[in-house]
Amino acid sequence: MVEKQQSQNDTDLEYSRNTVPQSERRSCFSLAIVWCGVVFVITSMMVGSSLAAGMDFKHIIIATILGNIFLSIVATLNCIIASKTGLSFALLTRYSFGSTGSKVATFLSPIINTGWYTIQSAVFGHFIAQIFGFGTAGEFICMILSALAMGIFAIFGMRIITILGYVSIPAIVFLCLATGIRSAGSIGGMSAVFAYKPTTEIAMGVGVTAIIGNWVTTSSTALADVMRFAKSLKSAIIASIVGLMCGNVLMIICGSIASIATQNGDLTSVLLGFGLLIPSVILMTTNIFTTNATNLYCMSLCLTNTFKLSRRKMLVIVLIIASVLTLFRPYRLNMVFSFLKILGVAMPPLAGILFSDFYLVHKSRYITFEKASFQKWNPISWISWAATVALVYAIPYGLKALNGIILSAVIYTLLMLVTKTQIVRPAEAVSSNDLASDQKGEK
User: Which domains does the chain have, with CATH numbers?
Assistant: First the structure.
């Protein structure tokens, strides 16, 4: 059975179910702002802190650059597809999973993102309550309000998220640099930072792997939802590389400097330690809001691919669920983190299948989405996905996310070539075949 792709009406300004037109494409700078807003997050600081536990500063810099070069390659592969097609990651999966299969496959991402969104909202609400001594009831209110407040930016889409980035990014950059400089100054300057010798040793390969693992899933999946708005392929590539090689590098390096100087890689806590309450609140707020708003926005695109409700209605439902879940204080439940990490292993193979389908199976050329007809299911995708997840858990070496991308790409390519499966065809060709079949039946 073949499902003919219907174009969406013009009321969806975020183009959640169709191609972003050239008239709505955006500059390299605005896209870089949004992507930097995503990578400016506490977890990158924590990576820098973990590296400082077993590497000197010179080797931290080398590991950071190598890791982000690799991430930039993965991000480039993703943003090339997105900018060429103008499609979200969810819609791109229809070319490899089929129209119905895509709806099932992309539902995994919202489950993961809702979990992390809830945790980060709870963390922020807990932080604000602790700072101002609001107590238990106050903490609950802060957590609920933080989940709702971050969602407002996602509801109003890319334009508002971009504005949030313009306001937040300069503040984040300034506070990160200021904290790193002040931290270094507290132990005698950068010469003391470079002279630092850790008590234990972390191998370069382990350090690079930690950096890659922090962003490989987002770089290979959700990044497409931002870069589909690029005016040109060059703009998409530059914006994605700037976010990683400038934004992510800055966060990791500043986190490592703070950890070396104060034994704490969380810049917010370091600012509090210096007695700078307001700057710490600003850094925490801008840090979490820019990342969480974009993550929720990307989640909404997957949900509209799975369900028939509009993007905004889906977000309202998610925000209600997230607000309620914050009351369980998920940041205290290690089981939640373990569950989300397990689910996270299943996402990279999805990206590997998409890369393989575009670059190898279709030779970097997709039929225009509005002119394409998709089979409902592609069993090859599901076989490849299941086999990859099993192999990822069976193979004890390497980074699971990276292994997932590579293995799924290899398995999917081989099976598609052997079976000669065809999932997408021009809509005109399908209509002609249907007409011919009808005429043959009449005879």
Answer: 30-429 (1.10.4160.10)
